Amino acid sequence: MDQPVAVKFKNLHHADEPLLLPNAWDFASAAAFVRAGFRAVGTTSLGVAASYGLPDAAGATGVQTLALARTLARLPVPVTVDVEAGFGMDPAALAAELHAIGIAGVNIEDGRGDHLAALDEQCALIAAFKAAAPDVFVNARVDTYWLQLPTEDTTRRALAYVDAGADGVFVPGLRDEHVIEQLVAELGQTPLNLLAQLPFQRLGELGVRRVSTGSLPFRVAITQAAAAATAYATGAPTPAAMSYDDAQALTLS
Length: 253
Fold this sequence. Notes:
The protein is of the alpha/beta class.
C-alpha cells in the first residue's frame, strides 16, 4: 500500500542523503523537475510573484499560490508550497485548504520586510497552522542570515518554532560550517534545511537534511530565455532546449 503523501514527504527528510528540493514557479517547471527524477518539488515565492508582475515577500500572491498548489497537487511526488508569512490569511483556513488540496508541506518565514516578526507572533502562526493541519510538514524559516540581521537569536528562534510545532527549520543564507554543525546538534531529530549555497555533498556531511534550490532555477530560466532570443538575433548558437513534443508532454504529468 502506498504511503500517504505527508508521510512520504516527512520520511524524505530522514533518508540516507539530504532531500534536494527544486523550487518551481509553474506547472511546467514542476513537471520538468519530476521528469528529471526529483523525489519532491517545492515552489519559489520569487518565481511565482515575478511571473505575475508582483513583488516577492509582500503577501501579494496568496490567490496565485493557491491556484498553483491546486495544479501541482496532481503530480506524482510530494509538493511543498512557500506561503511567505501566510499572505495575511487566517492561518487555520490556509492550512486546511492546502491540506484539502493535497499539499504535503509549507514553508513559513519570519521575515517581515527589513525586520523579523515578534517571536511570540511567529510561534502563534506556526501553532495555528499545525493545529489546523497536523499532517502538513511545516518548515519554519529563520531569516536572521537572509536579512543580514544579528544572528545570535537564530538558534533561539529555531528551537522556539520547533516547540510551537514546526517539523523542520530553514535558515537561508547560513554558510558558516561551524554554525551549521552547531545548529544541527541543537535541533537533534528536527531536520535543518539550507539553500544550495554550499556543495550538496558537503551539506550532507554537516548533517543538513534538506537543501532547497530556492529561486535559482527560475532566475536561470529567464536568463536563458532572454539569451536564446538574443542568440537568434545575432546568429549565435541558441541554448539547448527540449522539443515541442516533450514540453507538451509535461502537461500529462
